[in-house]
Amino acid sequence: MKLGSLYLLCVMGVASPCFQAGAEVGFLDQGWSKETREAFYFTSQGSRMIPYAWFMALERPVEPSMFADTENLRRYGFVPADSAHPLNPDALPIGFAIDTGEPSRTYGEVALGHVTSAGPSSRGDLGLTCAACHTSNVSVDGKLFRVDGAPAHLDFDSFYADLSSAVTRTLLDPAKFERFAARVLGQPSVTGAAELRLQLAAFQTRMAGETAMRRPVLASGFGRVDALSQIINSLSVRDQGDPANLRSVEAPTSYPPLWLTPDLEFVQWNPIASSPIGRNGGEVLGVFGVTTLKGDQKDWFTSSIRLYELHAMERWVSELRPPRWDEEAFGRIQTEVADAGERLFGQHCAGCHNAPPYRRTDPAANAFKKTFIEIGRVNYKSLGVDPLYTESLAQRLVQTNAATASAGSGKSIVPAAVYFRDTVAAVINRAMDDAKIDRDTKLEMSGYRLRPPKTPDGLPGAYEAASLTDLKAGPLAGLWATGPYLHNGSVPTVYELLSPVEERRKVFWTGARELDRERLGFVSDEAPDLFRFDTSLPGNRNTGHVYPPQGLSPDERRAIIEYLKRQ
User: Fold this and answer.
1) What residues have CB less than 8 Å from 228, skipping those under 6 apart?
2) Looking at residue 5, what is its pLDDT?
3) What sign does the CA torsion over 250, 254, 256, 257 have?
4) C-beta separation of 400 from 411 below 8 A
5) Which of 427, 17, 509, 24 is nearest to 221 (CA)?
6) Nearest alpha carbon to residue 234 among 370, 420, 471
7) Rounded to an integer, what distance in angstroms lies between the CA atom of residue 498 and that of residue 492?
8) Among 126, 213, 342, 345, which is disulfide-ready with 349 (CB 3.0 to 4.6 Å)?
9) Mind listing the pLDDT tens digit for each residue in 370-396?
10) For the chain, what is the mean pLDDT?
11) Residues 34, 36, 38, 40: is their CA dihedral positive or negative?
12) C-alpha to C-alpha distance for 524 and 542, rounded to whole angstroms
């Protein structure tokens, strides 16, 4: 095996007061400085969704108001920026970033958190960063608190569908296009406007196809997206150029929290990826990063992924602490009740959900004697939860081409999870080689996720997924800021999750950010501008996770909730 192959193995393995623009936000102590927080919010990872100047010039599909207005973007759940920033000169919401297409900054510059200007707003492409889906404002009695790394209340699918509609209407409506051209070009000549129209038409054609490829069969609503299906579609359909690989986007899952992730053995709801640079690179490719998976062999696996920036983000997240329950702001924790809850948690929950002090993996199971926080694994059938997410991945096959077959076994048909792992690994490996990254840095970026050699003269092996039908039972630190619950977000509060299935609400509303401090979660009653979550729909089932089998009394449920507040 070539040394490059070793690295390839390593890289993978509603409307509530919180929606008010300009509202004062309190920041919890999670270990980040203001500078780190803002760098995380706005540093480009290589996502290229739409030319930046075009986004700023677009109107909403029907209304003449601007699509980029904060008031419009808040409707989708984006968190408004606290202020303008050199990387975000127009103060777009958290998670938008300008990608100029210039080479990645040096490792030292990014790792040290140096911030440079994004440049003139007319340059580059607008993309998304992981901060868009993993930053939240929560509300307590109308006061806002920022929770960095928390699942966002973002309706990504609706946002992208409406953005696509705005592009289409701008192309087809002469008055809209005239205003758009004036904003982009200033005083456009006849020739300049005609050229812009041709460029917009070509972009709209691609975007309409991308939108159809991403459109969910089951509406996701706030706080969910079928990310894995969208990533595999992006790679195997768009980048590989094979429409036969298109599959429905039908199993949205909740955005998980980011804290602890650099130290976890595996991440994701279906724990198939271990390498930090691998999973983060896959995320970029899923949110409008681009890679070459066809054509001239010398171009295979080149991409827009920004390795140094991704690695810097992982380092920043490694410093991010889980949010602590603020007793002064959120209410006192009842110590004796929490103590009782801790004993109950130890009896009924800790076997799957690792809790402080965390159980760690065996250093002998790692080629570098590294240890990680163990995760629990539970087969989805024994857990009893909605099966659509797990089965849609486990049963999906992908047709490869010359490029993607070369990334793995050489087979023409492979399981989707294998395709995802091997293709993203090849993309990351190519980026590392092109950047001439040294061996030690490659291993650091990959999180040292390699198994010891099986023979004395062998090479380390990749961290392999134990099963495609397992779901992750991760640590529950900061659980209060991560509702709704279960992998598909089908249970609005922890109290209901600890209750018999028949006592869980069949319908509730998502998108509000006011904490439900008694039941733990977010207020989920009907209100304007929220999303109606119907648990009778396939993909939305709220069954399963009945522990212990004999059930818990109401007082026992409340005791566990009180304990979870102090994790």
Assistant:
1) 268, 270, 393, 420
2) 41
3) positive
4) yes
5) 509
6) 420
7) 11
8) 345
9) 999 999 999 999 999 999 999 999 999
10) 92
11) negative
12) 15
* Cα–Cα nearest to 273, from 45, 31, 60, 446: 446
252 neighbors 258 (Cβ within 8 angstroms): no
β-strand pairing of 450-451 with 461-462: antiparallel
Q: How far apart are CA 421 and CA 65, in angstroms?
A: 42
pTM: 0.92
The type of residue at 444 is E
pLDDT digits (tens, 9 = 90+) for 250-279: 999 999 999 999 999 998 888 888 899 999
Going through 45-134 in order, the beta strands assigned E by DSSP cover 50-51, 96-99, 125-128
Give the helix/strand (H/E) hosting 557.
helix 554-565
Burial profile 274-308: b = 16 or more Cβ within 10 angstroms, e = fewer: bbbbbbbbbbbbbbbbbbbbeeeeeebbebbbbbb
| Residue corresponding to tokens 């004697």 | 369
Alpha helices in 377-460 (DSSP H): 380-383, 388-394, 402-406, 416-434, 439-445
CA distance linking residue 298 with residue 313, whole number of Å: 30
Distance CA 230, CA 210 (A): 10
What does the block give as tokens for 431?
């980026």
β-strand partners of 360: 373
Dihedral angle of Cα 511, 512, 517, 520, to the nearest 10 degrees: -10
Strand residue runs (E) in 188-285:
224-225, 253-254
How much is the CA Rg of the chain, to the nearest whole Å? 23
* Mean per-residue pLDDT, 13-32: 66
β-strand partners of 510: 531
Reference 81, options 157, 140, 137; nearest CA is 137
Residue 242 tokens read as: 């094979």
Q: Name the amino acid, one letter, at 307.
A: L
Please give the sequence-ordered ranges of beta strands (E in DSSP) within 261-333, or none if there are none. none
The tens digit of pLDDT for each residue in 458-469 reads 889 988 888 999
